[in-house]
Predict the 3D structure of the following.
Amino acid sequence: MNEQERLFSTLEKHNQAQVDNLEKEVEETREKYEELKKTLASCTQQRRSIEKKNHNIQNKLNKALAELAEERAFNKLLRSDQEKWSAKLAEMEAKNASLNEKYAAAVNDLNEQIRDLMMHLEAETKIQDAVEKNEVTEQEINESNVIVTESPQHNLVKNRRRKKK
């Protein structure tokens, strides 16, 4: 029996060593499991955080793209309006130049008419003065042609100055 007890004792020690070994492995596995569980929870949290950031960035990108499209459309309208206004400006400038030419022609025509009228009035005044001074008779005026020479310009300037006062 002694040998059986010794064999039994050896077997029991061996089994106890195996049980201790298995318990140690189970404890290590449990620690690794807990560590992996924490790592998984941390990774899951990080993934959620990254997905949230990605979602926010995607929203900002979509908003920026919408604003960009709106700005491009607005810019296109502004360019179109600028082209229209440039064309209208060119048209108005051409019309203004034409009107200025017509105005200048009308002013020149009126100046000529004024000059002719002034010459007529001056001739009439000279003839009237000649009749009053008895240098010429009414009959001579009615029967003849009278040529009146234009007086020097400085006399007209003096007359104009007197009229203005």
Observations:
- The helical segments are 2-132, 138-143, 153-164.
